[in-house]
Fold each of these.
Amino acid sequence: QNDGRLRLSRQGVIFKNSKTGKVDNIQASELAEGVWRRVALGHGLKLLTKNGHVYKYDGFRESEFDKLSDFFKAHYCLELAEKDLCVKGWNWGTVRFGGQLLSFDIGEQPVFEIPLSNVSQCTTGKNEVTLEFHQNDDAEVSLMEVRFYVPPTQEDGVDPVEAFAQNVLSKADVIQATGDAICIFRELQCLTPRGRYDIRIYPTFLHLHGKTFDYKIPYTTVLRLFLLPHKDQRQMFFVISLDPPIKQGQTRYHFLILLFSKDEDISLTLNMNEEEVEKRFEGRLTKNMSGSLYEMVSRVMKALVNRKITVPGNFQGHSGAQCITCSYKASSGLLYPLERGFIYVHKPPVHIRFDEISFVNFARGTTTTRSFDFEIETKQGTQYTFSSIEREEYGKLFDFVNAKKLNIKNRGLKEGMKQSYDEYADSDEDQHDAYLERMKEEGKIREENANDSSDGSGEETDESFNPGEEDDDVAEEFDSNASASSSSGDGDSDRDDKKPAKKAKIVKDRKPRKKHPESKKGKDPNAPKRPMSAYMLWLNASREKIKSDHPGISITDLSKKAGELWKAMSKEKKEEWDRKAEDARRDYEKAMKEYSKSDSHRGERSKKKKKKQEKLVKGKGDKKGTTSKSSSSKSPAKGMSDSFKSKEFVSSDESSSAESKKEDSEDEGAASPPPSSEDSASGSD
């Protein structure tokens, strides 16, 4: 039913289960018969012992028969007999009981065999016997029951149906509570399955009796026992590992977890006389015992199951506890590093042995840098991620894993948490990142261009915007309310006096925003194109070949494939493309120098144009200043009705002043015409 490793030696046969780690050891002196036959998985070996147990191993090749047959003859003094199964397809035959096996035969050939230890229930009807089986969780399809029709016989006094059922029940794994329990523990808190249960201890099985469910657990299904201290140092976990698990509907419980308080004591009396206790338990138990409840339960279980109790080893976390607080899937729990594995409690419980671990990994926390994730991957490919572990636990856990010689995927420095994160931040990059390489190359080129252009074209951009020079003129040119404010500028109120200063401040903030977009113009189409990196040159040359090798490949898959090919490329081939990229960069620098020279000539011509425009703006501002003054002087003389025409008056004055615009631009240093009497009066005011 499970994979494992089979070892044949002179002393006997040893099989270790890969899933559970359980070891079956068959001594050579116990072997009674060996059968070689063809089965579904190639060929199989069936071994029968003298005490009636049957062991079956599948997965052999036909060519291995001679080797095994010679080995059995030489060391076990057994003939490895060849027996083929009957494949006629008949459904009537003879049932034979041999040891722990029920064999349905047609003639001398077996059709199928049923290990009676897999039978969970046997019921009888009229001329019929029904066998129910334990469900195998590892199989996709499980056989649940088989019905046998038993024809009536003429013999008196013997019911063939009852005889058949008794033969099955004598060897089957059917739990029947006969007699009194050795001891009973009342109302124990159970985490899985959840609830409070009375635990009744019988000689061969454990009975959990709850308000809703009952479970009967044979001691043969107990794999391991664990006694684990809680982080609060006030409680204890007692964990029982089961295979096969107990079932409730579709739920499987592979672990039975009991939670005890350390302060809870009990006095226990076994339901046996002292001689029976001494004979059966050989001093491990006494008739009358007292102590902590968790000690009594673990002591009784250890004696009955006859297995050692596993406790945490020498690991000690940051807070002094023997466990680490973490989260697995959606629930928070405790991870215990043991001497030979890890166990996590409690929802869902997980036990991982060191011998089934492929590697462990320390990963960055997904939500915060104050914690990290501890990942374990088994040799079967199963991955367990324990998240939200405090960063202070990193050093202790790393030292423990290192001491146990487990393979660490991202081994690096551990002097500080920051360094360790940097180490395994890069380890996740399994593929070549073409985009990142290209961005790095372009960043280098930008820095070089910035250094080259700072000597020449940088002066032009500095001169294009001169703060503090002719601020008032520009304010009147671009401010929509410039004329209105200037016309009322000579008013008597303090509000009018404050307005121009306020506007000048606003314009100063606005001015860089006006000029800023002019400095960020679009790319010059005549400018030389930046050179490509070595990877991009190779990709352009190899793109068609990759497409032909992988027809129908998408753009994203093509990029991934190209990254893999580039990463796998030899150093010599990469150097060839690096040389081409270096040549392209030199050509670009040469072209850029020539372009910057020609661009500087164009910059000087643009400087002259800008100076002319500034002079025009200045002249226009002077005109506006004179007209605004005249309008302000005339407005009080004409009265209130004329004051409403101040805007129209300014606009008409602007249109009339346009005629003298040409004259002002030609002769910049000429004196302005003498003002009228009204203008002079306003000026004196």
Note: The chain has a mean pLDDT of 75.
Amino acid sequence: HALQVLLIFAKEDNQSDGFWWACDRAGYRCNIARTPESALECFLDKHQEIIVIDHRNSRYFDAEDICRSIRATKPSEHTVILAVVPRTSADQEETSVLPLLNAGFDRQFMENSSITACYNELVQIEHGEVRSQFKLRACNAVFTALDHCQEAIEITSEDHVIQYVNPAFERMMGYHKGELIGKELTELPKSDKNCADLLDTINTFIKKGKEWQGVYYARRKSGDSIQQHVKITPVIGQGGKIRHFVSLKRLHCTNENNKQVSYFFHVIIFITFKSHSFKCKNRRKDSTDVKSITSQSSDAPSLQTRRYSSMARIHSMTIEAPITKVINIINAAQENSPITVAEALDRVLEILRTTELYSPQLGTKDEDPHTSDLVGGLMTDGLRRLSGNEYVFSKNMNLSHSHLSVPNTINDVPPCITQLLDNEESWDFNIFELEAVTNKRPLVYLGLKVFARFGVSEFLNCSEATLRAWLQVIEANYHSSNSYHNSTHAADVLHATAFFLGNERVKGSLDHLDEVAALIAATIHDVDHPGRTNSFLCNAGSELAVLYNDTAVLESHHTALAFQLTTKESKCNIFKNIDRNHYRTLRQAIIDMVLATEMTKHFEHVNKFVNSINKPMASEETSLHSEGSDCECTANMKNFPDNQTLIKRMMIKCADVANPCRPLELCIEWAGRISEEYFAQTDEEKRQGLPVVMPVFDRNTCSIPKSQISFIDYFITDMFDAWDAFAHLPVLMQHLANNYKHWKTLDELKCKSLRLPSEN
């Protein structure tokens, strides 16, 4: 959640600009209001965390009146309001801040239009008051949750003085909270059914800071003894001392009536986890899972069948969202469940609350070492083991190559390149031929053609010369020494993105700004890639890994460097002529798409696309077909920016790893290139004494067919089924089926190379 800031300035000046660009630097979302009415309306709509009000001149509006009107609203209790006051001269006495505080302001800021000064002020507010407000807001939410919780909850101080009980506790024990709060536990009547030393045992545990749970008899206000399952957790506070004890209590039921409930929820949990773990199994075995439901009848299904095959697989995916619904059901089940079931469900909840719900859990490495290594290399940030050997790669900041003269206009492109580019709208376009005739500079030439086709220069209001200079700068910062992550890969991803943007379903779902953002994101998405994975950089303690805190290291670098290169010089700044609102929106869209290519959230992106795009669309198609009308499923897509974001993410993800869906010869070439890059990484890890994150990619022992099969099974099939169900891409799906068959044949023949011996 990006912090939101509201600037209330009657007129735009250096001060308002200073705060605007400070917000941009800090990554905050910023709105500007000119009048008191629009300010209040904007705040009630957005609920910004920080409001900056111009208090320097009362000619246009009364800043204190605006502050009071905002403070009169409920959402403002969690908002920090800053007054910009005029700078005082040296001989003037500084005015009191009390009138501002009385009006509802939290702070004052002495007029200073420096972006750095504004940035420092906003960042200090975020790290101080705003974070404190977040904690207070969270506390309110926690107490609301406790009040509605079905479990009886009691919170006591370290001296066992009752400080809080929830309504469920009141109902269970028969007391009103006013009768309990402030009393010591020793003042309440005890049941005589407990073992004599049980209280001593409990105290021994919790005084050592350990959690205790077990069965305990408690006495209700009426005098009845009830058997409870109790869990007491010590809460460690300041200084490492125990500050509170939290007790969770449930009735301990042993009667037969709970067996049916218990069985029912065992069935729910069994189904949930079978559906969650099916992806862990062999992806091509004859079981009725997502991949085989509609593909068992024929080894070579028709293209139309393949289309419905993808749609059927989408319908059969059992991905739950939001997960909180499941958690709530389980919590309700625990209320009257026997202790064994309740404890089992506690374990279930622990698993469901992890952050890796979207990532299938793999079995042992012996089951599929290729998949395990791919996941380890692509979906983690390494083992975090720092080494004295820091991996530093040089940034290629050259702005031109010497091999081939750059055309002055698109019309100046050499005939051999023009002839090749005539076919660039075809999915089977051969990017390697373009690489050869352009002396490894395909990105500039393909970029000029594609960007012209989509009217990028017109949208950005920049000249063709500026666009050409920008493409040169970006391509110059790809490493031609990389076997895979070079400008040819960037051109290939740009080509795939343009192909997808030409698809009717995609085109009908996105705006022109989305198209421009997607093409730019594809162009820059791997700029300055060192030919090593994020895991490698983290393990090596590289400068980039340290800079980006081991999180989305390369993807963050690609976007940051691309914007730095773009804005460094006017001659290649393609954004210089668009207004800042457009720039801000475009920039956010580009960043979001490039970050989506990072693989740690692969399954999250795919599953969100399935749940938010595929399934609703499939339901709509079904109902429309039953009514005999044509499907207009994308008609309202533009009204849902979140859905547009999911489509853009899915599009660039598919474009980035579309190699297995290319014609066989291209697929084989890409497989050889990526394998060589991984081999080189393994060689370097061994030389430097770093952890080897993908051991199967040893050039002496690796089976490339096995690695391709694992990659397709684990990452590609589900994603392209979902994308095909949305966009209908029969050519791609046919190539994928053919290529998979090629790799399976090689694997069955124990061939570790790219082709059969007879084909070499």
Note: Strands lie at 4-8, 29-33, 50-54, 80-85, 107-110, 152-157, 162-165, 212-219, 225-236, 242-251.
Amino acid sequence: IVFVESTNQTKGDHRSIVNSEQQKTHRHTHLRKMANSDIVGFYRDRSVFITGATGFMGKVLVEKLLRCCPGVKTLYLLMRPKAGNDIRTRLEELISTKVFDNLRRDSPELMNKLVPIAGDMSLPSLGVSTSDIKMLSDNVSIVFHSAATVKFDEALKSAVEMNLKGTMRLIELVRKLERLDALVHVSTAYANCDKDEIAEMIYPPPADPHKLMECVDWMDEELLKGITKKLIGKRPNTYTYTKALAEHLLMEECGGIPLAIVRPTIVTAAMKEPIPGWVDNLNGPTGLIAGAGKGLLRTLWCHTTMVADVIPVEFPINLMIAVAWHTATHKPNNIIVYNCASGYHNPLTWGEIERQGRVALLKYPMSDVLWYPSGSFKSNLTLHKIDVVLYHYLPAYFLDFLARMSGNPAMLVRLYDKAHRAMSCLNYFTTHEWRFISENPIQLLEKMSPEDRRVFYFDVRTIDWPSYIETYALGTRRFILKDDPSTLPAARRHMTRMFWIQQISRVAILLLFWRAVVSRSETARRVWNLAFTMLVSMMRRLSAGAGIGITK
């Protein structure tokens, strides 16, 4: 026994060594290929300053720069001390997330290139100390500004503070950077959603950004709340409004600063990198997939023929990295805007998301679904509201009643209230359609080497939507709902049970409804008796033709 165990241990150690050597060989081959990359060479020995590094896109940006540009000197990450945690603790929390697993395993030394900078977008000079400003000034040549509040229902004061004043404070800091070669600002394609077609240009602002910032300083919350709807006009929320103002502010204030603007549409889970399907929040379609997969979301107000302009997260990230390279090396005379959108070259409709999503959710069901996922998108608002009552609130009130009777906390009604508030913020985007002109990313691709196009891919024409939606569903299952892949067989068995429970429930409800009608209507009873008599008569004839006797 000892001999066998020792032999197995030796084999295991050998396999481990072989796997380790294979990984090293793969990394070396990967690095040799990247030696032919202009972009990788550009970032060598450069220092980069990033705001919003702890956000969804920020994490992917940091990981991509470390993994594909290992020669980068330093990544300075603006971080706000939060909940009693200092910036060192927050940095540790950042690099311990799933997105950095491969880097921690294969190249842990690269983590030493991350340097946290204590700061706050809501403070003068971003709250950065004088010594840190000097350090940034002496070293940083590339700045990525992605920090923003992305809440659609954010109060105007908070949105202005973060998205508008925060951008102004960043501009003031950037002016002090002596070695600056490129500033890449992350906006949103929906900043100008009051128009049907959005070109790659900075539009006139809906208001004077400087005057608005002054007004916010002296107006109280209640007064601002009262005039918010009038201020934002045709825009659906304060997020898109303040993002439009920020773009104009940059155009006004960044004379002489090498600036480019990247406007992504609806940013969704990763297609391939850093991990297929990786996502860390319930925003946008992710919440819809999770809710529908669990059987909670049964209806959505949505125009199924309209284009859903979603974009996997690594596409805008790769574009940002390439845009910084192009801005620094080609030195364009104007501010180039890049609409990072899929609908212009590779459109996907909400109806296709519904169909492909249902296929994926039935193929890879979530664990312990509460109901069989068979809801649907409704173009008609009245039908949607009826379904909300029938399939969301009636079952929720009934189950909460049973929960209270059994001494358990009632939570479903509260859960649906929260879900409907979130969905109401999305309704504008699921019932409207835009044409985002996206030519500048394609032109940039043409200026990149074949190796750069491979490593820093952002050609939306290559996205296979059915495959991506399946990856998205699997990613939501794994990273949001924390369902282990090993639970799939049990989840499929449970899904089958829920299917039959749904079918039996439908038949039972139909019979109960018909019984109630028959018991109160003489006409309904006559119709029922006539139908039953005809059915028996038909069965007799069929059986007689087959030579089988049926007795009364």
Note: The two ends are 75 Å apart (CA to CA).
Amino acid sequence: MFGLEKPAGQQKPGRSGGFPNMASVGDFNVLSSSIPATKVELSVSCRNLLDRDTFSKSDPICVLYTQAIGNKEWREFGRTEVIDNTLNPDFVRKFIMDYFFEERENLRFDFYDVDSKSPNLSKHDFLGQMFCTLGEIVGSQGSRLEKSIVGIPGKKCGTVIVTAEELGCCRDSVLMQFCANKLDKKDFFGKSDPFLVFHRSNEDGSFTICHKTEVVKNTLNPVWQAFKISVRALCNGDYDRTIKVEVYDWDRDGSHDFIGEFTTSYRELSRGQSQFNVYEVINPKKKGKKKKYINSGTVTLLSFLIETEVSFLDYIKGGTQINFTVAIDFTASNGNPSQPTSLHYMNPYQLNAYGMALKAVGEIIQDYDSDKMFPALGFGARLPPDGRVSHEFALVSKIFIYCLHFFTTTKFWELRLQAFYYYVVFSSLRYAASVKDGSQYFVLLIITDGVISDMAQTKESIVNASKLPMSIIIVGVGPAEFDAMEELDGDVVRISSRGKFAERDIVQFVPFRDYIDRSGNHVLSMARLAKDVLAEIPEQFLSYMRVRGIKPSPAPPPYTPPIHVLQTQI
């Protein structure tokens, strides 16, 4: 989600792939129907962390957890990058959260010393934690909160500094490339290994890190790769805000040597390659000691290209339709539909889990489908009159509300023991393959009790579907273990088949039982479910459009009512 470059020497080679790239989109609080007052970006730094490594310093990562209102459970919100060999990290990756003045948002920051590629935090050394609220951060002087890290008895775990900055609405990004000339030589046996660190200034005069380039080895005249950064991250949309750029010589032990620095602004950079964008790198200590000191080299802007980021709603405004299909599991493991213990039992007073999952997702996604007509499929039953086994059969083809009544027909069908998902995935895949111009996007909702009999074929169909304008939502109902479903959800390990990996992560799985409100508030249960299963759809949608180079169509002009000329009869 964050497209920040990972500077060599700062992030562990080969380790970052094991950690989900999370820290970006904040959780929407389903208990509030109001529009967020604003969005804030949290930046995290630590000082004097515990040293857990024997022959070097700790390699820290920060994990943020949030706690929903009325719920004691902590849920992971996101993770920063891993920074090598330091007890004083300034994490580049930020956490972006909705801020409501009238709500209490409990936060927990956990810190670990990363020792392997495993995304499992229990495999790493715990360095401590800090508890606070979002309001506590925002309400601190300068929106800067500094607190002690706790959690390890008898140990001083250091301090954490969290700063909050309200975000502007700028959607532009810039693609920039820099080179340098005649930088100071810092290595005794060779030339320097330079990299750049970009900081934006804050309202209180402090600076927040926003980007690091890669390291270019053994040269005093480096050319860094072009990198893309949002204008929001670079200057929060303030074109005249100071941007400080520091130049360092990378060292393996983490004690990087400072070469010098310079300042600029977005407005200056936007002039592009010119004499105005050649900067002297100044080392203040050297300048103060040496009378003949001129500079420690120069840095030159080679290119500056502005790109406007398009959003999910840009495509919707341009006419892209979201086509929704639902597939219902009718296998025998659901139980006899006539018995109250069955997952398909029709309670006259409330919807069952299948109905609630369908209603929760369908009522939201119908707003993006002009005709509100959703294909509904069943799988895992013998159909009358000949008892033919079917792993894909039509339920209804009426308007959405009638989808909810398909359960009344289950008594006419004999439920089968095995569930094959391949057929319903392939059915949606065929439709998606016929429309790849960006005018339509397909979402398949599979509601199942978790028994899967064709894992290999299903994985192959998902890998194929990842190349198409399609997403798959799987909602698990009932008490079963859903280990197989977790494998299909490629959040941690990208799904593969026959040596081929999915082009995109298109599957989102959630167990319905995690969303059942203990007070019996089914509206809240459905809101929580819909929020989580639909949260990844916009990014999955955008990832397909980006890979295919599809731009949103222009929004139609606003409707202008015709002018009627009044005629008067004489």
Note: The radius of gyration is 28 Å.
